[in-house]
Design goal:
By secondary structure, the protein is mainly α. The protein has one domain. It has three helices and no strands. Helix 1 packs across helix 2 and helix 2 crosses helix 3. The longest helix has 22 residues. The radius of gyration is 15 Å and the shape is elongated.
Length: about 90
């Protein structure tokens, strides 16, 4: 059940990332942004647990900060690697 929650949270984080940089500011497709959000949450969760994070009562803010940071790094990498060019060659 926790995995489903992480996937949903990743999709939400990906959508929030797309809303934060709409249109010309974000040069990767929506599906890739969602994938980066989901991957960021999953990888962030693994990193958090690897460094001794074991959760807390209520919302575990540190885990979510790590997940969002990893998702942001993934979006930057995806944008760098697969981003569409913003300049058009004039003929």
């Amino acid at each position: 059940m926790e995995l489903i929650g992480l996937l949903i949270a990743g999709a939400i984080i990906g959508l929030l990332g797309k809303l934060a940089a709409p249109g010309d500011k974000d040069n990767i497709p929506l599906w890739l942004t969602l994938l980066c959000g989901i991957g960021g949450v999953l990888i962030g969760h693994v990193i958090y647990e690897a460094f001794g994070g074991n959760g807390s009562n209520g919302i575990d803010w540190v885990r979510w900060i790590v997940a969002i940071a990893v998702a942001a790094v993934l979006v930057v990498l995806a944008s760098t690697i697969t981003g569409r060019s913003k300049t058009h060659a004039r003929r």
